[in-house]
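Note to self: user wants both folds in one dump. Writing first protein now.
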Amino acid sequence: MIASLLVASLLVLGQVSSSIDWTGQSGDGSMDIGASMNNWWEQSNGDGNTQVSNPKPKPTTPPPPPLTCTVPSADMGTPTTQVDTNDPTSGTQLANCQPDEPAEPIVVTAEDFRRINLDGSGITINPENKDAVINLPLVAYTSADSQRTTITLLGTRVLVEATPIDYTWNWGDGSQPTSTEDPGRPYPSFDISHTYTATGTHSIALTTTWSGRFSINGGNTWQSINGTATTTDTAPPLTVVEKLPVLID
């Protein structure tokens, strides 16, 4: 009974003092009692052979979270979060907080551009599907439309856009080719034509020069390609004939 009252009293006092040490004896002298609220309590039957200890739980404080910082990734994608592994609990400056190692930039070279299987701009002739007549202009024109395709570089899908910038017409009769930045127009408002001066069969060829640009984010931003690509279209063989006027009564 006495021991119980003693321990209860010490527990109350322990709420006030962080360290209490006490020794005493029971009323009949049969038991020595000692207590310490700092670390443990013990009791003895007087001969020093019996001891019970119970460590006092120490309050625990969770450690502060490690310091982190966010840096942009090298390819401007999702930012990365880094932890200061040197000392995550002290200071506010992160010794190890550095940007990612620069990634190899994605660039579509002129060689890459030329390897793309671009469609030609096409050839249209007026009069269509008819023989050409010597000494009369043959009208030709093409398309000025751009085209897009997707390629893969360094594991990344890249959107490439090609735009025609120059057209060279080879008329197939040994004459000087016609080079222009204009795709031409159909008859009667045409501005590209050729006049054959002899009969024969000829194949008209068109070489189109393309400039390019590319995007790695689906067309939100573009970068120019440092170089051009070319395509060549060839029309079906064309027969040049001579037609003489005939008087009819």
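First done. Writing the second protein, which came from a different request thread.
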Amino acid sequence: MDMFIKRLQELLDERDMTQRELAERIGVTEVTISRYIKGERKPRIDTVGKIAEAFGVSIDYLLGYSNIRNPYNNVKSDNQQSKNDKDDEFMSEEDLYIIEQFKKFLKQQRKMKRKKD
């Protein structure tokens, strides 16, 4: 599977975002997003940039050139950085990865619960 397709689907799932919601955010049709996911169509580079921006990840991550979602995430102004963000400075990459995995787990649990209700 193409890494772009895998990452796009993964990001949609993580954020509980529909193809329609993403399409509206980036100014394309829902059918276009569907075709990206099915591998029937490749997005233009400007569209890749809009998708990356919508998810807060780098283009390199989205295309599979990097496993770091946003290398610029740690560059924040004093106004943006909260106490919790400062705690991240003391966490290893592995710690942050585990936290991300736990967040995915919690989202999946919520999604399963909604299906039951």
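Dump finished. Worth passing along: The chain is about 65% helix and 0% strand.
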